[in-house]
């Protein structure tokens, strides 16, 4: 059996406690109480794998570029040969295609202590990600575009299915959440470090993204508005999930500079 200790370390080594924090913020990662996706329903969804083991979600931006959370690759961005992407399948461990990652770019302002600017880009060989007929890219918001309060959005992934069982889902799952007022988001999480303008919150009753979904997509109105980043607990009514804000000007400029998208 393959030793997956390095992968477990990658996911859990990034726990952080702020000076006022009563508990640790942690990389988010499971779809709790979600629904199973049908083949072709999320054609932009990717499984990011390190040493053949699923560690995070990711999304297709075009034929050569994918996007994920920086904490998924932090400390390993100089070893892209360790990473592959499974695409074109709702099954975590089979189907679709496996593509090697050629280059990893972590946002230059990413801070593992507070998860700020939690975004990374993955480059494959040109056109590799759209060779599969079951794959299509997802668009990005414009720079500075606001996220409306109470906007319905969909989050998807293969992460743990409950807060008590550390078992990844074999089939892609998804759920619907609503975006949260930014001031309320910050206040709800103030004892866990709060949120920055490069983050936003979304939540729903009894369902959530919460290890394994990190880096995956949050979409609304046909566009990728967020990346699963961190949280306190899972599907906890007192704590919304936190996502990387892809319309943040620093993030959007950086993505455009590298990908031209």
UniProtKB/TrEMBL annotation:
It comes from the Eukaryota. PROSITE patterns: TRYPSIN_DOM (PS50240), TRYPSIN_HIS (PS00134), TRYPSIN_SER (PS00135). Its EC number is 3.4.21.4. It catalyses: Preferential cleavage: Arg-|-Xaa, Lys-|-Xaa. Pfam families: Trypsin. GO terms for biological process: proteolysis. One of its GO terms (molecular function) is serine-type endopeptidase activity. Keywords: Disulfide bond, Hydrolase, Protease, Secreted, Serine protease, Signal, Zymogen. Belongs to the peptidase S1 family. This is trypsin. The gene is Dvir\GJ10915.
């Amino acid at each position: 059996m393959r030793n997956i200790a390095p992968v477990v370390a990658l996911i859990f080594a990034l726990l952080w406690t702020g000076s006022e924090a009563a508990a640790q913020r942690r990389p988010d990662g499971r779809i709790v109480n979600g629904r199973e996706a049908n083949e072709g329903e999320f054609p932009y969804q990717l499984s990011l794998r390190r040493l053949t083991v699923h560690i995070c979600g990711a999304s297709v931006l075009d034929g050569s570029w994918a996007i994920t959370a920086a904490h998924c690759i932090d400390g390993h961005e100089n070893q892209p040969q360790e990473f592959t992407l499974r695409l074109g399948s709702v099954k975590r461990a089979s189907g679709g295609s496996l593509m090697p990652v050629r280059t990893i770019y972590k946002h230059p302002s990413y801070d593992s202590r507070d998860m700020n600017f939690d975004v990374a880009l993955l480059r494959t060989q040109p056109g590799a990600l759209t060779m599969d007929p079951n794959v299509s890219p997802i668009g990005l918001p414009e720079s500075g575009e606001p996220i409306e309060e109470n906007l319905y959005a969909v989050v998807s992934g293969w992460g743990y299915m409950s807060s008590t069982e550390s078992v990844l889902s074999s089939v892609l799952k998804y759920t619907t959440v609503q975006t949260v007022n930014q001031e309320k988001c910050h206040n709800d999480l103030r004892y866990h470090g709060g949120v920055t303008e490069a983050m936003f919150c979304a939540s729903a009753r009894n369902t959530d993204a919460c290890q394994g979904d990190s880096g995956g997509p949050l979409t609304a109105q046909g566009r990728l508005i967020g990346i699963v980043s961190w949280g306190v607990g899972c599907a906890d009514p007192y704590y919304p999930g936190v996502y990387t804000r892809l319309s943040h000007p620093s993030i959007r400029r950086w993505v455009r500079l590298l990908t031209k998208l």
